[in-house]
Design goal:
By secondary structure, the protein is of the alpha+beta class. Helix content is about 35%, strand content about 25%. It is built from 8 helices and 10 strands. The chain has helices at about 20-30, 85-90, 115-120, 135-150, 155-165, 165-170, 175-180, 185-190, and strands at about 35, 40-45, 50-60, 60-65, 70-80, 85, 100, 105-110, 120-125, 125-130. The strands form 3 sheets. A 4-stranded antiparallel sheet has the order 1-8-3-6, covered by helices on one side. A hairpin with a 5-residue loop joins strand 4 and strand 5 (about 70-80). Helix 7 (about 175-180) crosses helix 8. The termini are far apart.
């Protein structure tokens, strides 16, 4: 075995069968704490462990991390109906790889997974079973990360606007620019540029 590789955590490999996201959302709505939070509130601190899982009911949040230049990067934007948290890092006793900050005044439901282990985990014949929602959350972040590689900034902006048509009226252009990977000035120039039409193509 390669001495540089850590042994796999077998507890992370076994999942409850047939446990959908809808069931999880219903549980959070019934047992979570409903909170009204102001824009700019830190829900999860980067590099700190957090066992909290958040369901966004109204508003939006950004997932952020600090790069090698000590600049904050927006790695994902999340909106009403979506789940956000750093559960895997908490189970592994590792610091959160990204922070979570509200972009608008929000209504969220928060639940501490450690306080609800009877729902999130169970032991059966010495084996631990956990719910598969972690894969759902991880897949969302994976898609966002892959988009930074496979799409141009303006394609990312187009996808974001298709998803949330009023996004530029809801959150700052600076945050949108950080998410698509351009400067606020570049995005303003792009948005203010007059689209080419058939009447002015040859002028």
């Amino acid at each position: 075995m390669n001495p540089n590789l850590l042994p796999p955590n077998r507890d992370m490999d076994i999942y409850y069968p047939n446990n959908g996201i809808d069931e999880l959302i219903e549980y959070i709505l019934a047992h979570g704490t409903r909170l009204r939070v102001k824009r700019g509130t830190v829900l999860v601190h980067e590099r700190q462990s957090s066992a909290a899982l958040h369901l966004i009911r109204r508003g939006s949040v950004k997932c952020v991390c600090t790069d090698y230049k000590n600049h904050q990067r927006v790695v994902s934007l999340m909106f009403a109906g979506e789940l956000v948290g750093n559960f895997i890092s908490a189970r592994l006793n590792e610091p959160a790889p990204f922070g979570v900050v509200t972009l608008e005044d929000c209504v969220i439901y928060r639940i501490d997974i450690q306080e609800h282990k009877d729902f999130f985990e169970c032991d059966c014949n010495g084996k631990r079973f956990v719910r598969a929602f972690t894969e759902h959350i991880a897949y969302h972040h994976l898609k966002s990360y892959l988009a930074t590689i496979s799409l141009s900034p303006w394609q990312r902006l187009e996808v974001l606007q298709e998803r949330i048509p009023d996004i530029l009226q809801r959150i700052s252009r600076r945050d949108v620019a950080a998410f698509i990977g351009v400067s606020p000035e570049s995005m303003s120039r792009h948005l203010n540029a007059k689209p080419e039409t058939d009447d002015n193509k040859d002028i």
